[in-house]
Amino acid sequence: MAxxxxxxxxxxFFFLISLSVSYILFxxxxxxxxxxxxxxxxxxxxxxxxxxxxxxxxxxxxxRIATHILLLQSENGIPFAYVVMDRFNSCxxxxxxSTHLLNHEAYHANITYIGAKILNQTIxxxxxxxSEALNEKDKIVQLISSKQKxxxxxxxxxxxxxxxxxxxxxxxxxxxxxxxxxTIDEFSGATAYFPDQxxxxxxxxxxxLFKVFQLEKYAMKFRFITKYDYNVxxxxxxxxxxxxxxxxxxxxxxxxxxxxxNMLMVETNCTDTVYNRRFHDRIxxxxxxxxxxxxxxxxxxxxxxxxxxLASRFFDSFTLKDMSNYWEQEYLKNSPKKISDVTVxxxxxxxxKIIHRLPYSDCSITYHKPIIVxxxxxxxxxxxxxxxxxxxxxxxxxxxxxxxxxEVDSINQLVHLNLTELDKPTNKIQFGYITKxxxxxxxxxxxSTIIYKYNISNKR
Amino acid sequence: MSEVMYYIKxxxxxxxxxxxxxxxxxxSLFFLFKQLKLYDKYYxxxxxxxxxxxxxxxxxxxxxxxxxxxxxxRVIHNLxxxxxxxxxxxxxxxxxxxxxxxxxxxxxIFTVLIVVYFVELLLTLLNRIFIKxxxxxx
Lengths: 460, 138
What we know:
A: Immunoglobulin-like; seven-stranded antiparallel beta sheet; five-stranded antiparallel beta sheet; B: mainly alpha; 0% strand; globular
């Protein structure tokens, strides 16, 4: 008996040593590196990030994510908070997962990121030490944890899709609060509110040049378009638009025309039967540009009001800002490009062939009011059809008579003329550019049709 | 006296030590073979890793009590082994930082119980055969 006891005790010790040998062979470092993924709102969540084995007995959750706020003592002594996803404590149900669910989990991490952002701001505002920051972190973690619960409760763990989308919108808005998103067209000064950075692109063909800000998120599409030089006859526009929508199988079309801050506005609502979604549209005209705000959203029988609310929030956010100050600063910041008179022989004037006539433009331009800096009229524009490196020179034609040449700037072209040149009551300024390829071929295509009329004496 | 009562009445430090021995053996062999990637090639090793500690535990019982542990006694004894195995496994997995591979305590308890009792069932059948041919190993 005593021998057996000894054998068992010796065996236990032996197996303890054997276990230790296993630990020696184990790579702790790479295992630890695998555990945490630094989280940023731009981070992508993959299914492979959910490394924890899910419960064998179902507990009602199809996924769960663990995120933490960590504090780092930076070299300059200021603590810095960041967010990590704990892969070893995040799991999902392999039999029931979707992109929608993954997105729901990603927004849990984004809520934690908001906490880290608040903490970093508090550290900077109050000049907190590391231990003070730790105490502050505990308070913020409590707050964030209650928000996480609220998020799950209200969205019913992503099952209630409209509310899930509303929360995503809300979280993005909070995340981007205080961050300057590129949502303004610096030429027209038009802007609308986007909760996240929209995609910015141009729709351009021979006949149109539209600058588009578009955000496709929350199962919605928010689109804001500036149409440069798009001067259409607005008298019957409402009916034309309705007819166009009818031809595209849109149903339940309602349209109205009204005044909006002294501008004409056409508002249209309808149902897109092809993609089974609602379409809300608002077209606003000022004297020079047309602005179109569009929202598409899914048809939801339960929570349609949520999407409508977000759409109306988007429409109401539209503003036209005065960009004069901005361009004035741009002009002063970048030393003005040399401008010189070009003597054009009478018989050569006809070589300036105008490619596109109004109402279509080649450039992003500003119109609203003349920008006068140091006795110079400054006209900002940007070529959207050609890259600046493909442009040979900027050409300005004043009153169909004087021709000025100006060097090409890198992105924006700031045409400037001395006010003394504008000696007529109404002055007509044409400006544009000649491309390098055209100047080699000696066919002076003048790639702009912008005609800028001022009665400077009245505007000054 | 029923088998259950007999096991409980004769339950001593020896049984605790046997169970601890078996669970330590099971966990250490499991970790070592896993580390050496032997399970990938030799599947039988997995069965041996579970069955050998159980067989040894029952063998100790036979030597200490001069009678083999009956079915109900083995069921109870396996419960003690499973409890120790779960506890040792938790500590071992947590130290290595790989508890996520099993995920939850409930998963670990469930797995250990299923594996131990399934192997025990196979060992019982094997023991019956051995007894029939006159070998009493455990």
